[in-house]
Amino acid sequence: MLEIKNLNTGYDKKQVIFDLCLKVEGGEIVSIIGPNGAGKSTILKAVCGLISVWNGEILFDKKNLNHNKPSKNISLGITFAPQGNRVFDELSVKENLEIGGYLLSKNKLNERIESVLDVFPILKERFNQFAGSLSGGEKQMLALGRALIPEPKLLLLDEPSLGLAPNLLNDVFQKIVEINKTMNLSILIVEQKVREILAISHKVYSIKLGKVAFDGSPDLLLSDKEMLKNLFL
Ligand SMILES: Nc1ncnc2c1ncn2[C@@H]1O[C@H](COP(=O)(O)OP(=O)(O)O)[C@@H](O)[C@H]1O
Ligand SMILES: [Mg+2]
Fold this sequence. Notes:
By secondary structure, the chain is an alpha/beta fold. It has a single domain, classed as 3-Layer(aba) Sandwich (Rossmann fold), CATH 3.40.50.300. The protein has a 6-stranded mixed beta sheet with strand order 6-7-8-3-9-10, sandwiched between helices. A 4-stranded antiparallel beta sheet has the order 2-1-4-5, with helices on one face. A hairpin with a 2-residue loop joins strand 9 and strand 10. Helix 3 runs parallel beside helix 6. The two termini are 32 Å apart.
């Protein structure tokens, strides 16, 4: 479904990602882990079209995304919930969800909001409240819900657990498993909570200094304590 071939990219003249290859097959949850500053968020930004590809190729269903704008990628079926998952505090839950569907017709938008509310009943309860009045966990659900409004085939998630109380982590990861299963959705997810994310991933890429340091099965990585340690040194 998604294939990144020898990606090189960065900011201005600073190269951050070097010859990176990565694949996501249909229906998979694929995780990207690694130390701060390794380039994890940069990979997601390149896939969704927020930064340009210097060299290499990003393919989605065999179509080349290299020169696409984010809006084009949304219409192809790729959505992105960025790090920090900001919601608009001064807008209602309803209005936040509507922003996720700015490319949809009114009818389609209403239909999509209904199905997202079915997945996140808490958002139904809070539908007309200001997003600013939601708890951290609820805001996270809203950010996830908003990214699901365009009915993506591939969801890019950047550290959905960031800033959440430990007792809420499980709720968020369970929701991710649920939407992966029920919506026939592939998920590429950056996470710092290594144990939790490996437990729900089909495949993992560990990134170090902009390169792939390990890729393979989460079980393999978890069984090798030495490797796990080295990846974060
Ligand atoms: N907008 C930006 N402009 C310039 N450099 C950036 C920008 N965003 C990130 N970087 C740099 O790119 C590198 C990788 O950042 P990032 O992809 O955010 O890492 P990670 O998500 O793995 O923590 C870091 O050195 C960071 O300082
Ligand atoms: Mg990051």
